[in-house]
Design a protein that fits this description.
Catalyzes the oxidation of 5,10-methylenetetrahydrofolate to 5,10-methenyltetrahydrofolate and then the hydrolysis of 5,10-methenyltetrahydrofolate to 10-formyltetrahydrofolate. The chain is of the alpha/beta class. The chain is 41% helix and 15% strand. The mean pLDDT is 97. It binds 5,10-Methenyltetrahydrofolate (GUE) and magnesium ion. Residues 168-170 line the site of magnesium ion.
Length: 297
């Protein structure tokens, strides 16, 4: 079997297009653009790349982008004060504080300071709780993007066996909850899981979110499984390479001989994360303006 490639990049482009059209309609109704504030502390090169592409995508989707770049030695109090200003700013519908933060800042305290109704990352405990008990709130962008790719590919997930590898608050746990809400039978595997290969072997759906390059092997997969690879790992440069290649958590080449469908890295889940961020921001804008959020985005 040769797996079909799940083209997250193209799916995300279509989603951003729809969000952009809905954002233009929002502007007509509300008399202002929807706005996303992105806060970056320090100069981590990877974070700078992400923040730049978020800003570009936000503007391209007819929304305002407010970028706040702070020195690496910014105090936690100064960062919290900025978050408070953004909470109070009516032009700001969504707030994203880029993670990771420098070690001297308590990321949990910063996330807790964000107004849950502007928390378009879905990281605030209020939104985690809303997801856990089935109330409307913001769902973390990466797992939401994975769900969109899965339901587009498979339709009804009811009764399917899903294995999520990784238990982070940002991906693994919310991913498992979304799969459960879709009536899949869900297993969360992690570093202490015994015989991970045997656990993965049962799965119709595998979501790999461990952050270890090419860890999930083709031999672990049930033939015909649908594989969503959340990992973005840079390999050490090979001979003659300036930068190492980007690879996922799945050993893509061999895995694509066993799976029926698989997301590539890059071009899979990553672009979906940004598209869902824009969608969450537009939903936030509608709520803040007292308008009904549009359907079909
Ligand atoms: N508060 C917060 N929210 C986040 O959502 C958040 C964050 N902090 N910190 C960092 C991670 C990482 N992240 C990515 C987003 C898009 C791609 C993406 O578009 N990747 C492309 C390009 C990859 C490349 O070429 O570097 C792809 O996979 O095809 C990747 C990673 C969001 N994050
Ligand atoms: Mg975590």
């Amino acid at each position: 079997m040769v797996a079909e490639t799940i083209d997250g990049k193209a799916f995300a482009a279509r989603l951003r297009e729809r969000v952009g059209e809905a954002a233009a309609r929002f502007e007509e109704k509300a008399g202002r653009k929807a706005g996303l504030a992105v806060v970056l502390v320090g100069e981590d090169p990877a974070s700078q790349v992400y923040v730049r592409s978020k800003g570009k995508a936000t503007l391209a989707a007819s929304m305002n982008s407010f970028e706040h770049r702070l020195e690496a030695d910014t105090s936690q109090d100064d960062l919290l004060a900025l978050v408070e200003r953004l909470n109070a700013d009516d032009a700001v519908d969504g707030i994203l504080v880029q993670l990771p933060l420098p070690a001297h800042i308590d990321a949990q305290a910063v996330i807790a300071a964000i107004d849950p109704d502007k928390d378009v990352d879905g990281f605030h405990v209020t939104n985690a709780g809303r997801l856990a008990v089935g109330q409307a709130g913001f769902v973390p962008c990466t797992p939401m993007g994975c769900m969109m790719l899965l339901t587009d590919r498979l339709g009804d997930l009811s009764g399917l066996d899903a294995v999520v590898i990784g238990r982070s608050n940002i991906v693994g746990k919310p991913m498992a909850q979304l799969l459960l809400d879709a009536n899949a039978t869900v297993t969360i595997a992690h570093s202490r899981t015994r015989d991970l290969a045997a656990v993965v072997r049962r799965a119709d759906i595998v979501v790999a979110a461990v952050g270890r390059a090419e860890m999930v092997k083709a031999e672990w997969l049930k033939p015909g499984a649908t594989v969503i690879d959340v990992g973005i790992n840079r390999l050490p440069p090979a001979d003659g390479e300036e930068k190492g290649r980007l690879v996922g958590d799945v050993d893509y080449g061999p895995a694509s001989q066993v799976a029926s469908a698989i997301t590539p890295v890059p071009g899979g889940v990553g672009p979906m994360t940004i598209a869902v961020l824009l969608r969450n921001t537009l939903v936030a804008a509608h709520r803040n303006a007292g308008l009904t959020a549009p359907e079909g985005i």
